[in-house]
C-alpha cells in the first residue's frame, strides 16, 4: 500500500520509524539538492539536510497538512540555510553535482563544438556567480523556482511571504540576472573580437 505523506507523518508521530524512513527516502534528494544549490558545499548541504529531517521527525506530532509535506520541509530548510548565512559568510564555489556537472548540460554540450562548449561553460559559471551574489531570500526563490520548479504559492509558503512579495523577489532577482547577463554578453563578444 502506498501511504500519503500525511499518513506517514501521522505514523511517524506514533513512533513508526519505518514510516519516517519512507519519508526521508521519498524527499531526501529534493531537499539535499536545494541545500547544495544554496550552500555550494556538499558536506554542509548534507549536514543541513540531516537537520531538516531531524526537525521534521521531532515535529511530527505537531505537523498539520496545510500544504504539501515537501513545502514544509523546504520551509525548515530555508530557516536553517538563512541561519547558516547569518552565522558566517559562505564562500561560493562552482556548483558541483555527484557527477561533477549537470546531466542536461552534459547532454546538450556533447552536440556543441568545443568553442561553443567553452562559451556555454563560461556563461553558466557567470550565471552561478550572479546567483551566488543575490541576497539569500532572492537566491532561495530563484533556486526553488528555476531548479525545483515550485509554484509561486509553494515558494511564498516556504519563504513566509505573500505571493506578490514572492513575485517581486523573483522579478528583482531576474532583473539582476538579466543585467549581469547583458554585461557578460557584451564583454564576451568584445573579447572574441580582439
UniProtKB/TrEMBL annotation:
One of its GO terms (molecular function) is DNA binding. It comes from the Bacteria. Pfam families: Sigma70_r2, Sigma70_r4_2. Keywords: DNA-binding, Sigma factor, Transcription, Transcription regulation. GO terms for biological process: DNA-templated transcription initiation. Residues 125-177 form the RNA polymerase sigma factor 70 region 4 type domain. The keyword NAD does not apply. Residues 23-88 form the RNA polymerase sigma-70 region domain. InterPro entries: RNA_pol_sigma-70-like (IPR039425), RNA_pol_sigma-70_dom (IPR014284), RNA_pol_sigma70_ECF_CS (IPR000838), RNA_pol_sigma70_r2 (IPR007627), RNA_pol_sigma70_r4_t2 (IPR013249), RNA_pol_sigma_r2 (IPR013325), RNA_pol_sigma_r3/r4-like (IPR013324), WH-like_DNA-bd_sf (IPR036388). Belongs to the sigma-70 factor family. ECF subfamily. This is RNA polymerase sigma factor. The gene is rpoE.
Amino acid at each position: 500500500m502506498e501511504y500519503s505523506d500525511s499518513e506517514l507523518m501521522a505514523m511517524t508521530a506514533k513512533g513508526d520509524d519505518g514510516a519516517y524512513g519512507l519519508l526521508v527516502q521519498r524527499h531526501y534528494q529534493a531537499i539535499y539538492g536545494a541545500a547544495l544549490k544554496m550552500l555550494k558545499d556538499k558536506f554542509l548541504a548534507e549536514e543541513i539536510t540531516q537537520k531538516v529531517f531531524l526537525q521534521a521527525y521531532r515535529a511530527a506530532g505537531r505537523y498539520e497538512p496545510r500544504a504539501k509535506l515537501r513545502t514544509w520541509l523546504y520551509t525548515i530548510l530555508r530557516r536553517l540555510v538563512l541561519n547558516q548565512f547569518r552565522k558566517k559568510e559562505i564562500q561560493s564555489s562552482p556548483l558541483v553535482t555527484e557527477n561533477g556537472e549537470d546531466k542536461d548540460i552534459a547532454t546538450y554540450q556533447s552536440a556543441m563544438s568545443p568553442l561553443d562548449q567553452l562559451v556555454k561553460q563560461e556563461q553558466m559559471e557567470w550565471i552561478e556567480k550572479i546567483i551566488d551574489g543575490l541576497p539569500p531570500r532572492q537566491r532561495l526563490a530563484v533556486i526553488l523556482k528555476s531548479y525545483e520548479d515550485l509554484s509561486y504559492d509553494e515558494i511564498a509558503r516556504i519563504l513566509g511571504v505573500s505571493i506578490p512579495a514572492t513575485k517581486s523577489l523573483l522579478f528583482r532577482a531576474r532583473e539582476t540576472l538579466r543585467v549581469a547577463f547583458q554585461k557578460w554578453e557584451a564583454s564576451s563578444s568584445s573579447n572574441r573580437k580582439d
